[in-house]
Amino acid sequence: MKSLVKHFPILALMLLMIACGGSVEQNQSSEAVSSPASVGQSGVKDDVSNPNVVQVAVGSPDHTTLVAALQAAQYVDALTNVGPFTVFAPTNAAFDALPAGTLETLTKPENQRKLRDILEYHVLLGVYKPEGFVNGRKMGTADGRSVTVEIAADGSILINGGKIIGTVPASNGIIHVIDKVLVPEDK
Questions:
Q1: Would you tell me how many other CB atoms lie within 10 Å of the CB of residue 142?
Q2: Which DSSP string corresponds to 89-111?
Q3: Rounded to two decimals, what is the model's pTM?
């Protein structure tokens, strides 16, 4: 009986390991296989939940340039996280209105940080619905700067001169489709 009591902690540990599905080494290796380091939050496949802001953009034919820019800046994973985010999403036409060569230059690997700064300038932390915008209000962006809200005489909402032409809810925030790429003045 004394030898059984003496070895009880070891037996209990072995039983616990067996009940949990095997050895510590087996559990560690299965975790490594199921969560590779090279895939972030955006790599999670989920066709059941409401789409997040990136999934909404990916599904929009008017935002292919924005999606390509998010990928070039490696900003997709950040925007697929919980949030909540308010994203000002320029249309393809808004990107086309940039000076010739601007987008091609920004999407080069050596300009990744600059592109990411510009994309972060389109993101607010928190959810801001159209009815919550106040004329003249400055709102802090994810890159540490701020954008200014303007309510036009016709009731339309402009962010740094870019008109909100649509609003789409997402599981991790809200997207305001805008007709202009917001470029910080010192960029």
A1: 20
A2: EE-HHHHHTSPTTHHHHHTSGGG
A3: 0.74
**Dist. CA 31–CA 104, nearest whole Å:** 39
Enter the tokens of residue 125. 């932390």
Peptide bond preceding 61: is omega within 30 degrees of 0, i.e. cis?
A: no
Nearest Cα to Cα of residue 107 among 58, 147, 67: 67
Q: Kindly tell me the sign of the dihedral angle through the C-alpha atoms of 99, 71, 115, 160.
A: positive
**Mind listing the domains of the chain with CATH numbers?**
1-35 (no CATH), 50-178 (2.30.180.10)
Are the C-beta atoms of 160 and 147 separated by less than 8 Å? yes
Nearest to 108 by CA among 66, 65, 69, 75: 69
- Which 3 state secondary structure label does DSSP give 5? helix
Tokens of 20: 């949990």
Q: For 158-179, how does the pLDDT look when each residue is reduced to its tens digit (9 = 90+)?
A: 999 999 999 999 999 999 999 9
3-state secondary structure at position 115: helix
CA–CA distance, 27 with 178 (Å, rounded to integer): 48
Per-residue pLDDT tens digits for 128-137: 999 999 999 9
Cβ burial, residue 25 (10 Å; 0-12/13-18/19+)? exposed
Picking from 58, 145, 139, 126, the residue whose alpha carbon sits closest to that of residue 86 is 126
